[in-house]
Write a structure and sequence with these properties.
With about 240 residues, the chain is mainly alpha-helical. Helix content is about 75%, strand content about 0%.
Amino acid sequence: MSRTLGWLVPALLLTLLTVNMEMLEPLFRPLVDERAPVIYARDSFAHLLGWHALAVFAAIAAATLLALGAAVAVTRPAGQPFFPLARAVANLGQTFPPVAVLALAVPALGFGLTPTLVALLLYGMLPIFENAVTGLQQIPPSVREAARGMGMTPLQRLWRVELPLALPTLVAGIRISLVISIGTATIGSTVAAKGFGEVIIAGLLTDNLAFVLQGGIMVALMAMVLDALFRRLEQRLTPPGG
């Protein structure tokens, strides 16, 4: 029951506020001047939710493909010498400030969604890469030997044995990257990408604390919903006693 409430309550709140943020107007009214707007109305919250989710999911899907491919490569005998290099590249993406990535990407890619996707992709790779490597390395040698003894090819062993066993750890890495990216995506609005960052920046520019809170609440609810859902997925994928 408590697990269900963990995602259901924030999901209901997210849905309710997306379609009717005006219901909280009495709570936000004391935070702004009498003549200032209380509820952000330059765009609908449903539209902003869609753009915010698009940026996060597209970037993390690409990051998952790249990070998983690199993890599989460096856990094969021929790729093990490249493991330090792959980890260094993934670390670089995490440690390089997303704002700096945007500043470097805009001259080449222009304003809008594309530079935001690049920043989120680079920022989201490290947790997925590290978890994928850990999941693949934790597979007992006896399991690999049993698969080899059954006559499986290397590709069959990877696809039918190793990836299914590593999947719960991989999903945990994707969950961490998603949660981080939901918050990080707000900076995309500094380069004209749509999303809840637009509401927060509008509040900062106009000294409207209500706008800042509205954007922040929506971002937090998105993160809570996805975190809870992916935790449930991890639990379902984990074998009994695992």
